[in-house]
Amino acid sequence: MAQAKGDAALARTLRLALAGTDGGGRLVTEVEKRLRTIGRSRGFIEWDKVRPLARELDSLRETITGALAATDPRAAVAQMRLLLGLADNVFERSDDGSGTLGEVFRQAGAELGRLWALLPGRDPVALAGEVLALWDADGYGETDRLLEAAGPALGPEGRAELRRLLEARLAALPRSRKPDAFESWHGRGQLAFRLRDLADLEGDVDAYIAATEAGGRVENSAGDIAERLIAHGRPAEALAWLDRAPDRHEGEEVRHTDLRIAALDALGRREEAQALRWGAFRRWLTPQHLRPYLRGLPDFDDVEAEDRAMAHALAHPDRNLALSFLVSWPNLEAANRLVRAHHGEMDGRDYGRLRAAAEALAERYPAAATLLHRTLAEDVLRRASSRQYGYAVRDVRACASLAPLLPAEPGLENHAVFLARLRREHGRKAGFWALLDGRE
Length: 440
Fold this sequence. Notes:
mainly alpha; DUF6880
């Protein structure tokens, strides 16, 4: 208690703890008083106050779902509603760049759905209206997890009522005159999204498809539909949907390829699935396609196929991607050959791949590791990227640690010659040299 005199957060925690030992009534009073105080606040929440506020809100959430729910579920529901209602106020006067506050409120939304299941004599139809009202008031995604958590409380009757309410709203909306136009998020698109969530909750793939079609631009969700159809044992229909799916970026193409492979496997069309795996590997150098491809080959054929795969990687025009694949496979001997032959073609801005490869190669192939570290350092210096000088220093120091292991061979600079060249070409970059020489 003495410590709490100078620590407001501790004092609030102690008051809640003491209130929890004195019956639900006092605990409700303490929780509500604090929530309403936060709700009345209008000052901007500075960046260093965001996490403490998130911790306090989370503590209040835990108190509501724990001690309060155990003694008075109705009061717990009311207080969780109050906590969830703070979202607009809190987000409008803070910068939640870290996502900490958002996570607290999303968790509160899920807890509200679970608390409803504790209510004796609850009315599922009324709860459906409550869910819709909370969705309407949601400005920051705080109810993203509400529906799934509320599934048991809603039951079949509540879910049917929620579907009826959503479909009635959807039917009342005018259709866009432009069939390919994007609808407002607060219009047809949002209602379709909610209906899709509801269909997922019930495991109804046909309702999911109908909801997607109602929202428009159904082909953009063809992959999502195909994924659900495969899970429900309908791979032939999944393939038909995948034929309609646009591949707008590489990640989407990879996903659609994986779904197509899964559908073909489910249909027993093994050769087609294998051809897709090999084609995907040749294009993207993806181990997740090559490994099952090799496992699906007859004995001894896999060894020859793996050799072809390594040769393909060594010849791949994207040297950074090829290096990353060879290191992750792993085939460090091939990775060493690639670096020694093509390090000059590698993009030094690809720090994540090249540094990881250098570290993997350092023990067995110090020359290749050195060449990668030099590529990284020289790229930073060529671009005069002063904010990255610290990384360049790390790479030069890594070169120094590997220097005693370098073979004496034509075309491979020793460390002293490398440093001399750096000073000759980049001597005016004082910030880098100050860091390297330990003056900063």
